[in-house]
């Protein structure tokens, strides 16, 4: 018996959101969960000083449940998945574009009794020239003061960091107004520890001067920067 489902076409497709095209299949006789990553379309492109490359990471966690002491939960958080035995599958790095094509097939051993208690998370990760992934996720608030002609970035917070204990890191922001014009600022440095499971907050505000005339064409690039062996690894 085979179970197969394709998500290439959705009835409620929203053209403004990224769309993952994936096929999944479970073979009862082999107790194998197979999945094929075709592509991710409508990918938002971010400004970068180098050529953009990306890869897709797929995380499989077994033994998950939506039932908690508070009742049934609609979604399963990333922290819950990481607390279980999680397997990771990665595509090769490819050129990042509006439609990032992967075309890769994977197989994962999943017992039948655990099939309905298995969660999947698919993440599109930008990679640097050394094929290293993003360091984590950024949350922040941004406002444009039209009278003062300034951009203010506040409430900077990192989550889901893929770094080791005692690693030092900070956030760097670059405002790009024209081809050869940019302004850069950075936050204070933080040292990662296991007590920061829910994220790390930064107190410093990042302020940029930006005239109203240049505002429509401006781009803001934010990066998590890790200090390691006298060099910097960027997200």
TrEMBL record:
<dbReference type="InterPro" id="IPR035892">
    <property type="entry name" value="C2_domain_sf"/>
</dbReference>
<protein>
    <submittedName>
        <fullName>Uncharacterized protein</fullName>
    </submittedName>
</protein>
